[in-house]
Design goal:
single chain, alpha/beta, two-stranded antiparallel ribbon
């Protein structure tokens, strides 16, 4: 953060694009609901400069003028130890280059938690930033008997105070008038009220204030106090000038040697002043509905059971409830592909449009149902107040693994799909916590792996087989999910102590009162996230799909070992009665005969056989041959290598790719009996089976751990704003998958399996 930016004579003129005000305050104060009330649908979403934290900017029609409103992410104070936590101070002080400084800040206060919320407002008041305080949830405070008197709060703090309720719309007109008054006369939003800090602390602040340039001397002192609370040897702050960092560390070291606690001097002074004030609260808090519910939801036993049930519903929703919409999208894109294919002459253009563009776009849009459903449910739970309780319940377990308590929900939703799960990491405050969660979420066994597991298990593990006295198919399916979860938690523990090591930050969160979520707010947030996915991550996925299509489609006219055109001619000229079979694969393999029962089936068999040989000759097939020496120690042949190349588009594509490789057809799925039989009967040159239960286990382990999903890599690129992390993710997961499969296969052979 640039603390030495040249002072600008008039607030609001840096990069002016019209009058801007900021909406700031603690988390869970109803700030976003108020933002939506003020701006309606006139909002756009984007990222703050240099970080992944999203911001929303909307237009508030205020009388005859239109005001730009910026929704600042919730913060308990302006102090920060991470780059993301700097967002609040950068926003309200206008420290981002090219961004206008807000003309005033509307501080949204939870009227039921007045004193704690006013701490944030005090930091702005002492910096002489024009502010208006909005006492939100005033209706809830009245019901609890703890409503403050707005006029009394205004008298104490010396700035405009308005009681509002974002849920009912109460007080919004009065808030608009107060904002108009401060926009016209900024001094009306500044206060002459002061609280006295210790003399030694004032000397330290003045030393730092002399090193920064700001709008005013009071703001320079405020930035000095911010630096004293924020800069530390283990912080993640960026762009802190070297002299300022050194001065802060020297001041802290000197204070420690003198027995002074700078944090206590700053924070304690503010809270002591607030505690001494009379804000007109005359009632006594009643034991409300929230407290009664929390007796159950935070109970060690009942709270845990409720949590497991809630997460089970969330998991089931992503896994099953989105399936009809996913099926509809796949059906529509399948119909569109067939229509385009039938409308164009055979050739590269038709193949490109159908297999590259249409199928590529379908592979992007097919994620929308899960993404929208995930963010709808998360938004509903967050707005109701329950998500804070979830983080509280699992924080101890997650902290032991180096993860943040809030990381549990993204990891759980990874069982359905890693793409929306990675996008859900936005609920984590620190970049380090988000990155660590993103690096381990893809290890959770998503639903795309299920077709692969189903195909391999059903083909190689008959129902009559037993493992530890249990039916082999069910045992193996459960084992794969337990295995992937254990590896994800292990990876989190390792990465959290090595590459992504960071200071342990206590879970600081507010347990807000339970309230009925506003459907309009939840739906709006859901749509914003879905739109971001389509416009940013989706373009990368589409590009990767086209590249993969090209690998499997070229060269267009390879030399084939068999005259498939002659076979077709023989069939269509009624000579098929004398044709007992057709060659189904290329050279260097023993001939296989496919029984023909009709002309249609005979033509389909010829087409599948030709497609299989063309695939072998394609660049993708050549790549499969090229990687065969690398995957042979895992028990895989070149055909599995081609399947792995195809599966990079999406893991479940492995099944249809193998159907093409074995000359059965691309329409095959994990339930395909012919494909299962071909897998069971596939032989090596020496006559030994290609697929054994050991090879199947090795293949499933590889799929459980490898990064076979370009969609995941694309969304990690989008969320991390860097190619470094998706490349690292691909490298470490692929390496881990190879090593684990090698140990399984070679270890199994040593044991005689």
């Amino acid at each position: 953060m640039n603390l030495t930016a040249p002072a600008t004579p008039e607030p609001g003129t840096r990069g002016r694009r019209g009058t801007r005000i900021a909406l700031a305050g603690n988390p869970n104060t109803g700030k976003t609901s108020l933002f939506n009330r003020l701006t309606g649908s006139n909002a756009r979403v984007g990222n703050y400069a240099g970080v992944t934290v999203e911001r929303e900017i909307g237009v508030w029609k205020l009388g005859e003028r239109q005001v730009e409103v910026m929704d600042v992410p919730g913060a308990y104070s302006l102090a920060a130890r991470s780059a993301e936590e700097q967002v609040a101070i950068r926003s309200v002080f206008g420290l981002d280059p090219g961004e206008p400084r807000p003309a005033l800040v509307v501080v949204v206060i939870d009227a039921t938690q007045l004193v704690r919320n006013l701490y944030f407002a005090m930091q702005l008041i002492e910096a002489q930033v024009p502010v208006v305080l909005a006492l939100n949830l005033i209706d809830v405070a009245r019901a609890q008997g703890t409503a403050p008197a707005p006029q009394r709060v205004e008298d104490v703090l010396g700035v405009p105070v308005v009681a509002v309720s974002a849920s009912t719309g109460e007080g919004l007109a009065a808030l608009g008038k107060a904002v108009e008054r401060v926009l016209t006369k900024p001094d009306a939003g500044r206060s002459g009220v002061a609280w006295r800090y210790p003399h030694a602390l004032n000397k330290d602040v003045e030393k730092l204030a002399a090193m920064v340039e700001a709008w005013s001397p009071e703001e320079a002192k405020a930035l000095g106090r911010w630096a004293l609370l924020s800069v530390d040897v283990e912080d993640e702050l960026v762009d802190i000038p070297g002299p300022v960092r050194k001065a802060v560390l020297d001041i802290r070291a000197s204070a420690d040697s003198a027995g002074r606690d700078i944090d206590a001097e700053l924070i304690g002074t503010r809270y002591a002043w607030l505690d001494a004030q009379d804000f007109g609260i005359r009632g006594t808090a009643k034991l409300g509905l929230t407290e009664r519910i929390d007796r159950w939801l935070l109970h060690p036993l009942w709270g845990g059971l409720t949590f497991l049930f809630t997460m089970g519903v969330l998991f089931q929703a992503l896994f099953a409830w989105s399936d009809p919409a996913i099926t509809l999208i796949e059906t529509l894109f399948g119909w569109l592909g067939r229509t385009v294919h039938d409308s164009l002459p055979p050739g590269i253009l038709a193949d490109f449009l159908v297999d590259g563009v249409i199928n590529g776009a379908g592979s992007v849009i097919v994620f929308l149902p899960q993404i929208m459903l995930l963010f709808f449910l998360l938004g509903f739970l967050e707005d109701s107040g329950y998500m804070a309780r979830v983080a509280f319940l699992v924080d101890r377990l997650m902290k032991s693994l180096g993860l943040h308590g809030r990381a549990f929900v993204p990891m759980l939703s990874g069982y359905a799909c890693a793409v929306p799960a990675i996008m859900a990491t936005r609920t984590l405050e620190r970049q380090r916590d988000r990155l660590l969660t993103m690096m381990v979420v893809p290890l959770m066994s998503c639903s795309a792996r299920l077709p692969v597991y189903t195909l391999i298990i059903s083909a190689l593990y008959p129902p009559s087989a037993k493992i530890l006295g249990l039916p082999a198919p069910g045992f193996m399916m459960v084992f794969m999910y337990v295995f992937s979860t254990g590896m994800a938690l292990t990876a989190a523990a390792v990465l959290g102590r090595t590459l992504l090591k960071g200071p342990k930050v206590p879970l600081l969160l507010e347990l807000p009162p339970y309230r009925m979520p506003r459907l309009a707010t939840v739906v709006r947030q859901m749509w914003m996230r879905a739109k971001t996915f389509l416009t940013e991550a989706g373009t990368t996925i589409l590009a990767c799909t086209v590249v993969l299509w090209a690998l499997l489609a070229f060269p267009r006219d390879p030399a084939l070992s068999h005259d498939y055109a002659a076979d077709r001619a023989a069939i269509t000229s009624n000579e098929s009665e004398r044709l007992s079979g057709v060659t189904s694969s290329g050279s260097n393999e023993s001939e296989r005969l496919i029984t023909v029962t009709s002309e249609e089936e005979a033509l389909a068999a010829v087409d599948a056989a030709e497609t299989a040989e063309r695939l072998q000759a394609s660049y993708g097939g050549q790549l499969g041959k090229l990687v065969e020496p690398l995957i042979a120690p895992l028990g895989f042949d070149w055909k599995i290598g081609v399947g792995l190349v195809g599966a990079f588009a999406a893991r479940e594509v492995f099944v249809s790719t193998m159907g093409v490789v074995y000359g059965i057809g691309a329409e095959e799925d994990e339930q395909s009996q012919p494909l299962r039989e071909r897998i069971r009967g596939e032989k090596r040159a020496d006559g030994s089976p290609v697929y054994t239960p050991l090879v199947g286990l090795s293949l499933m382990v590889f799929f459980a751990l490898s990064a076979q999903c370009m969609s995941t890599l694309a969304v990690v690129r989008r969320e991390s704003r860097s190619w470094k992390w998706p490349l690292f993710l691909f490298t470490y997961m692929t390496t881990l998958a190879w090593v684990a499969s090698f140990v399984v296969y070679q270890g199994g052979k040593l044991l005689g399996l």
